[in-house]
Design goal:
Number of strands: 26
Structural class: alpha/beta
Shape: globular
Bound molecules: 5-amino-5-deoxy-1-O-phosphono-D-mannitol
Strand content: 15-25%
Largest sheet: 8 strands, antiparallel
Number of helices: 19
Low-confidence stretches: none
Oligomer: single chain
Distance between the termini: 28 Å
């Protein structure tokens, strides 16, 4: 996600901005830039790529001045590029802005400004703010009033840092739905999207609240509400270490990302629902095209392939078309039978996984059009695919994928629902019901996360096991694969995912007294069968932990170990039921003394075969 930093004082700004940006690198980004006020002008240097690219540019174009703003950009609107990087200048160059968040109404604003003669240099939503403020300043001489009038025209989320050549003694700041803080120095002050950016300089900060704006001078800070009334704020003293602050106070990135899932789910679902319908027009998936789909082929690796397994069940059930799924490392070498009419889908968090990319290229070579579901704008897979649906999970730093999985599952669910409606294989009333429930999932995810003590308790009880089994049927069977992988990769407990009905065909031989079997129990249509499978392992001495609905009593008679999720439609359960499984893996790793953020032998992005 994007990062903001700003400095006003007596020292050269650039070094301080670069240090601040470095401390925001953990958020993930694909380009960066800085702007510094010098005399009556604003100088800007920005570069696609890592901070080193920006640093090299700054060596050849040094910036001098003691007031500046900087930004690391994680692309949303427009590819990662020099032009799309922040800061953005207004037409005359008198305003520079850095922005986190998304300005949802940027398209009509851009149209209006273009009609007034403003020429845009980038594809970003942010640039509209710079021109809009310049336009407002033509009639509003007070900069604070002008910023207020400008942000009032914005819909969406923003944290803004603004420089204006007419007011060189201050940085303007404003926030709505995107965090922004002000760091208080001695004879200097800072703005930042996250506390770590200012921690080398100060531990005293103001935390801006929703709708608040600030004028940050070198020697003092003024904070106002949206009505222009001054706000008195208490100074917040930061007591965390830099490292902990980057993790937002969470013990590990993985835990932070597990807790970020409500937000990630909301950001993935919300923008795609328009007038009570799923709208995938961003990927050029026309209704006519989807009506004509006769077969879907999904390929991916690891967790992304397990999200694909959930997608397979949903698409077949709802759209009545066959779905083939394969891991990309096999797919690319097995000379697959492909038809150019297939809907070919690749799923990849990073968008850089070598095998998935090779599968995409193979599909292209066979004349197929490729739809990518990825989390990283401008990634190789996003660039090479014919159309892209982004999971707006935000940067995933922990090696063990969590919020990427849930958002991939949601994206595949939306494809299934939309295609089913287009094909007429789903009653409109059932579609409406599922769509409503889909939108309730983020709140339900947050409900699960509001009390993790049962998971901690069971992790403490079972962490010393050397083997575990995950069983389930239907969608639960698909989910078992992800639950099992999560446990393996961070706790190093061997585990196996089994379709519950398959157990008795061999694997049940491994069940011995005390062995833990985790049973996923969200699929009503097969729950009786699953209960029989649970009984089969119980009679052989296994201990069973179930993950099922909180209002389902059926498992109570079978086991005292139960993790629960709020009731939802069975078709939507994987996105919720995975959360206790993720937490269980996390707390088992902690109990065993391992660092879940640094699992042995694993890399976040597997760009080699
Ligand atoms: O970036 P991708 O989604 O393409 O990555 C695929 C796998 O490498 C990834 O999901 C891996 O399995 C994770 N470590 C799982 O937690």
């Amino acid at each position: 996600m994007c990062g903001i930093v700003g400095y006003i004082g007596k020292d050269q700004a650039v070094g301080i901005l670069m240090e601040g940006l470095k401390r925001l690198e953990y958020r993930g980004y694909d380009s960066a830039g800085v702007a510094v006020l010098r005399g009556g002008e604003i100088d800007v240097v920005k570069a696609r790529g890592k901070l080193d690219c920006l640093r090299r540019k700054l060596e050849s174009t040094p910036l001098s001045g003691s007031v500046g703003i900087g930004h690391t950009r994680w692309a949303t609107h427009g590819e990662p590029s020099d032009e799309n990087s922040h800061p953005h200048l207004s037409q005359s160059g008198e305003v520079a802005v850095v922005h986190n968040g998304i300005i949802e109404n940027y398209a009509p604003l851009r149209e209006k400004l273009t009609a007034k003669g403003y020429r845009f240099q980038s594809e970003t939503d942010t640039e509209v703010f710079a021109h809009l403020l310049e336009e407002t300043l033509k009639t509003e001489r007070d900069i604070l009033g002008a910023v207020r009038a400008t942000v009032r025209q914005l819909e969406g989320a923003y944290a803004l840092g603004v420089l204006c050549t007419r007011f060189p003694d201050r940085i303007l700041a404003a926030r709505k739905d995107s965090p922004l803080i002000i760091g208080l120095g001695e004879g200097c002050n800072y703005i930042a999207s996250d506390i770590p950016a200012v921690l080398p300089y100060t531990r005293r900060v103001y935390l801006l609240e929703e709708g608040e704006m600030a004028q940050v001078f070198a020697d003092h800070v003024e904070i106002y509400d949206m009505e222009g009334e001054p706000v008195h704020k208490e100074v917040f003293e930061v007591t965390w270490s830099v490292d902990a602050a980057e993790r937002g106070g969470y013990a590990h990135f993985m835990l932070k990302e597990i807790y970020d899932q409500g937000r990630a789910m909301r950001d993935t679902i919300r923008p795609r629902i328009k007038d009570g319908r799923i709208d995938l027009s961003e990927a050029n998936l026309t209704d006519e095209m989807l009506r004509g789909v006769r077969r879907v082929v999904i390929t991916a690796c690891g967790t992304a392939s397990y999200a694909g397994q959930v997608g397979r069940v949903l698409i077949e059930k709802l759209c009545r078309v066959p779905v083939e799924i394969d891991v990309a490392s096999e797919f690319r070498y097995r000379d697959p039978v492909l038809d150019p009419e297939d809907l070919f889908v690749v799923v990849s968090q990073s968008g850089e996984t070598a095998d998935t990319l090779a599968a995409l290229r193979l599909a292209h070579a066979r004349g197929c059009k490729v739809l990518a579901i990825t989390n990283v704008v401008g990634s190789t897979i996003a660039r090479e695919a014919d159309s892209v649906l982004y999971t707006w999970a935000g940067p995933e730093i922990a090696v063990a994928s969590t919020k990427a999985y849930t958002t991939q599952v949601l994206m595949l669910t939306m494809i299934a629902l939309h295609m089913a409606l287009c094909k007429g294989t789903l009653e409109p009333a059932r579609y409406d019901e599922l769509l409503k429930e889909l939108q309730r999932l983020p709140d339900k995810a947050e409900e699960i996360l509001s009390d993790v003590t049962p998971v901690q308790r069971y992790a403490a009880r079972f962490f010393s096991q050397e083997d575990m089994f995950f069983i389930g049927r239907g969608l639960d069977s698909a989910l078992c694969m992800e639950a099992s992988l999560k446990l393996k990769e961070i706790s190093y407990i061997h585990s196996e995912a089994m379709a519950a009905g398959e157990l008795k065909h061999g694997t049940i031989a491994l069940i011995e007294p005390g062995r833990l079997v985790v049973a996923l129990c969200t699929q009503g249509s097969t729950i009786e069968k699953l209960r029989s499978n649970i009984r089969e392992v119980l009679t052989r001495g296994a201990v069973v932990l179930t993950i099922g609905y909180e209002d389902s009593d059926a498992e109570k008679e079978l086991t005292e170990y139960r993790l629960t999720i709020p009731r939802t439609d069975d078709l939507l359960a994987p996105a919720l039921a995975v959360i206790p499984a993720q937490l269980f893996a996390y707390y088992c790793a902690i109990q065993r003394g391992y660092d879940p953020d640094k699992p042995r032998n694993l890399a976040k992005s597997v760009t080699v075969e």
